[in-house]
Amino acid sequence: MARTEGKELETPSSTMPPRVALVRCEDYKARRVWEAVGRGLDLLGGAKKFVRPGEQILLKPNLLVAAAPVKLVTTHPAVFTAVARHLRAAGASLSFGDSPAVGPPGVTAWRAELASAAAQLDIPLADFSKGVRVSFPEGGLAKRFTIAAGALAADGIVSLPKLKTHGLTRMTGAIKNQLGCVPGFLKAEWHARMPDVEHFSQMLVDLNRLLQPRLYVMDAIVAMEGNGPRSGDPRPMSAVLLSSDPVALDATACRMINLDPALVPTITWGEKHGLGRARNVEILGDPLKQFIVPDFAVNRRPAIAPGKRGKLASVMSKWVVPRPVLAPASCTCCGTCVQVCPVKPKAIDFGDSNQQLPPNYDYGRCIRCYCCQEVCPENAITIQTPLLGRIIHR
Ligand code: SF4
Ligand code: SF4
To answer: CATH code for 19-291?
Structure first.
C-alpha cells in the first residue's frame, strides 16, 4: 500500500506553512535537470526525507497518450531520469507506471521515451493493467476505488506531473496526475458517475488522500498552454517544482500561469478536505515573480458546471456550458474520441457513416467531461462556450 508511514518522512503539516521548492531549469539537458531536481530536493531537506533505503517506490509520470517528448503531452524523460537517479542514490528501489487515457501502458511509455529511460536505469514497468478494489471509508465523496495493482504494491509513490492546461479542471498538475493510478477505462467511468466537475474534483482529492504520494515533482520546464492537455502549444516556463503538498504545488503553478487557484476545483476541494493548502505557501529557491507568465493561454472564465445554477440553468445548460466542437477538416476519423466517450449511448458517434465521415455530437447526451477533446490526436476538437454562456459571463 502506498501510504506514507513513519514520522521522520516528509508529510504535509497542518501547522507549518506548506513549502514548495521552485527551481529554475532552462531546458531538458540531462545534467541541468539533474542539478535542478537535486537542488529542489535539498531545499526540502534531501531525498532521504521522502524515501528510506530498500523501499519500493513507484514513479508516477503523466503518460496521457502515446506521444513523443517533443509534443509535451507527457512528463519529459529527463525529469523522470533525474528524479530516479536522486531517489536511487537515497537507497530507493524503483518501478514506474501510469494508465494512459487510451492505449496500453507499455506502448505509451515507449513512445514517450520513458520506457527507454527506465530501461537504462533498470527500472521495471509496474502492473497498471490489473486493478484491485480498495475501500476508502474516509473519502469525502468516493469511498471505493479500483487502483492499479502496481501502485498498490509499492511502499510509496513519487508523482511526476506535467504542467498543462485542461478542459475540465483548467490546469492539470499534481492532484490530477493520480487519476492514472485508476486502470484503463475505469477512469472514464468516473466521468460518467460524476459528470459535475465539482464532484469529479472531490473524487480526485479522495484518490490523492488514499494514495498519499510522498513527493510531487512537476515538469514545468516547457508547459502546455491553449488546447491542452494533448493538443496545446508549448510555453517555456523554465521551472521544476517540488513539494509534498499537492495543493500548494498546484496553487503555485497557477500563480505562475496567472490563473486564480480559486478557479481550479481540485485545489479548492483539496483545501476543504485537508489534502493541503493553497495559501501562505512558502516558496523555497528562486523567486516566484521570475516565473509568472501573465498571458499564459488558459481558461480564466468562472466555472459553469452543468446543473450548478438552479433548475433553469440546468435546462439551459446546453446553451451555456462550454462544449466540445469538432472541426471536420482536421478529423481523420480515427475513432479515439468515440472510444473514450463514457456515456451510454455515446454522445459522439459515427452514426451510419461507418467511420468514413467525422463523428457527430449529441449535445443532449454530452456531460461535458471533455475526454474526447483530451485524446484527439489531430487537434480537431476544441472547447467552445456557446454565445449565451459568453454573454452571461462577460
Ligand atoms: S475528432 Fe479527433 S479523435 Fe475524433 S475521430 Fe476525428 S481525429 Fe479521431
Ligand atoms: S462527447 Fe466528449 S465531452 Fe461529451 S460526454 Fe462524450 S467524451 Fe465527454
So the answer is: 3.40.50.11440
Q: How far is the CA of 317 from the centre of ligand 2 (A)?
A: 14
Ligand 2 touching residue 20 (CB < 6 A): no
Nearest ligand 2 atom to the CA of 323 is: 3
Element (DSSP H or E) covering residue 187? helix 186-193
337 touches ligand 1 (CB under 6 Å): yes
Pair type for strands 170-172 and 233-243: unpaired
Q: Which helix or strand (DSSP H or E) is residue 221 part of?
A: strand 215-225
Q: What is the pLDDT of residues 133-184, one digit of tens each?
A: 999 999 999 999 999 999 999 999 999 999 999 999 999 999 999 999 999 9
Q: Is 233 helix (H, G, I), strand (E, B) or coil?
A: strand
How far apart CA 157 and CA 150 sit, in angstroms, is 10
pLDDT digits (tens, 9 = 90+) for 20-58: 999 999 999 999 999 999 999 999 999 999 999 999 999
CB 112 within 8 A of CB 77: yes
C-alpha–C-alpha distance, residues 5 and 7, integer Å: 7
34 C-beta closer than 6 A to ligand 2: no
**The CATH number fitting domain 310-392, selected from 3.40.50.150, 3.40.50.1980, 3.30.70.20, 1.10.1840.10:** 3.30.70.20
Q: Which residue minimizes the CA distance to atom 8 of ligand 1? A: 334
CB proximity list for 15: less than 8 A, separation 6 or greater: none
Ligand 2 touching residue 324 (CB < 6 A): yes
Judge whether 32 and 26 are in contact, CB under 8 Å. Answer: yes
Gap from CA of 190 to ligand 1 centroid (Å): 22
| Cα–ligand 2 centroid distance for 368 (angstroms) | 5
- Which of 269-280 are b and which e, b meaning 16 or more Cβ less than 10 Å from the residue's Cβ? bbbebebbbbee
Q: What is the pTM of this model?
A: 0.93
Q: Are 83 and 59 in contact (CB under 8 A)?
A: yes
Rounded distance from Cα 372 to ligand 2 centre (Å): 6
**Residue ranges per structural domain of the chain:** 19-291, 310-392
